[in-house]
Amino acid sequence: MSGKHSEEASNPESSGGVQGSATGADAGANGPGASGVPDEQPTQHLPQVGAVSPAPTGLDSSASPTGAASSAAPPSAASSAPPTGTASSAAPTEVIGTHGEVVPSTTARERSAAKLRTSPPRGTSDFGLLLLRLVVGATMLVHGLQKFGMWDGPGIDGYEGVLSDAGFDQARILAMAGAGGEVAAGALLILGLLTPWAGAATVAIMINAWAFREAAEPGINYFAPEGIEYETLLGVCAAVIVLAGPGRIALDGRRDWATAPRAGSVLVLLLGIAAGVCVWIFLNGANPFEG
Prior knowledge:
The chain is an all-alpha fold. It contains eleven helices and two strands.
């Protein structure tokens, strides 16, 4: 004991240094700068009990694990969801039927039927056009069949002789073409199929029949049996069918021009007129008004 006290007494700086160190430690614990020396930042922190250390993913250390998981979730959901705007922007071309079959969503037939349902009422126009087509078509049909020998007709040979006597060149070809054209045009007018072309063919045939009748009886003779009454009536009725359309009660009834013909019908009619005039000029050449 005496030795220890004598050692402390002989070295007072050591005892004072210990006390100073303790004082400095207390001052450092009480606040920074108490001893005049700035505190150093701790380089390591021990995890608290119950705390979860974030995984070293390169994210901000201040973000919690829950926040990291929530921020990573949207990309996964977005990648699994289909791109917005792609399916909605494309118009559907197919639909699933009541029995699971795939059918087209809209067809030309459905659009045409919808247009017919929404079109204004036509009254009795379609029935009137049907009656006109039936009368003109049946007349052309039976006259054409008569030229093939039916109903005591002249047949192709007799019809060829008539055309040859009237001054036509290529009478045999014209006889077959004329008889066949009358049969085909009449049948098509009755069915309402290819109606503008059938009507135009009727107009061409009637132009030659009109010129033939006029050349046989010089001058303007309108009344039958020598006049041009019959040929004029059939030709004008055929032109009306071309310009007015076949109506809805026809095989062409679903076409737009069946109830509302436009410039195309006028063009077809002009072609029929031109064909009839050219046949007369180039294969006969006579002036029907001089005889």
